[in-house]
Design brief:
single chain, alpha/beta, seven-stranded mixed beta sheet, five-stranded mixed beta sheet, 17 helices, 12 strands
Length: 450
Amino acid sequence: MAGTTRSTADGDRGSAARLAKALAIVLGTADVPLRLKAWDGSEAGPRDAPVLEFRSRRALRRILWSPGQLGLSRAYVAGELDAPGDIFAAFTALSSAGKFAEPGPFRRPTVAELWTLAATAVRLGAVGSNPAPPPEEARVARNGRVHSRHRDAAAISHHYDVGNDFYALVLGSSMVYSCAVWPDESGGTGKGSTGGNRAGVDGLDTAQEAKLDLVCRKLGLQPGMRVLDVGCGWGSFALHAAGRYGVTVLGVTLSSEQANLARKRAAEAGLTDKVEIRVQDYRDVADGPFDAISSIGMSEHVGREQTPGYAASLYSLLRPGGRLLNHAISWNAGPTDPDPDSFIPRYVFPDGEMISLGEMVVALEGAGFEVLDVEALRQHYALTLRAWVRRLEENWDRAVALTSVGRARIWRLYMASSAIGFENGLTGVNQVLVQRPGGAEPPLRRTAWM
């Protein structure tokens, strides 16, 4: 009866066994490498496998209406589907079967499989109208042409304007929302687990400072230079560059909340004479030239078709001999079309689009830049994401109070699945250093900044 745990590993035909067959259809696999728990207490699957729990029939109903990544994601965000143990282990298993971490189109069930899903839903009492999406789902598709200034501003607001205090819980005092640079492979968190020692969390700020300083050295910053920071976030790079290297920095962001905190941080650091923060689209910056430009974790929002124009805009803002450092996530698994009905565009980065490293280099060279250096930091981002997940879980109640339980669950799913993507090599992150020809020659070797 309900509330009694029943194992289906040896043939029991409870709700969990039927759920396992339904999930196998959605994932396109013969076997689901998970231990499934159903709302009636029944269980199915290998006893030593990571656990995925269906807390409500509503989770199956969502999957029936959206049989893919979107249905699974909505059920998780709504709290109807959960991974109550090690989230990294659960989503590694899920990803291995259904490519859950991929941003490309999810496998669509055949008509016959859809009939089987519907029959399963009928047997389990899960048939009903399509549940409304969780309130945290993005609505930017109503805001005009993709990558227009207005729609880009709406997309950025959806992702970044969820409260500076929430981001501080996840990111730590560095307030750097991009890949850190770690001294070794361990990162201190223990690969494959949210456990491990405290080094990964406690060392996060140090690793982020190492990344900021690496960017400054690659750009060859010297006192008196004028620097543009595109997508400046909460001002961390601007403060580091101005405070440590004596440059003046213009930071631009489309997030009002980011800009307000960045200005406050600049005032507290006594750097208002060296750091200016604007709420402005990079395409509207007209007061160049600059001696150097940093773009850290921003170009993912630009879009594939707009990337050549992005590169050309930054080229026009640099003086001859000036350097641009483009730090961006890349898609490593071959050509794929973005799926607007997958988790990331619906809940995390509306209109975001990852391109390959090759596409980025082609765009930069096409704008006239000379490539000086490319550094891959894929493993560093996996370690960074694990540290962020650990911080979120340690501050869970506070994170929920600052936003919502749905928003906190979005971030847990997003960061954990992204870490898996970096560890599997589906995604990468690269620093591409380029220079506008003319002016001083670059150093002969990268030892100048390494």
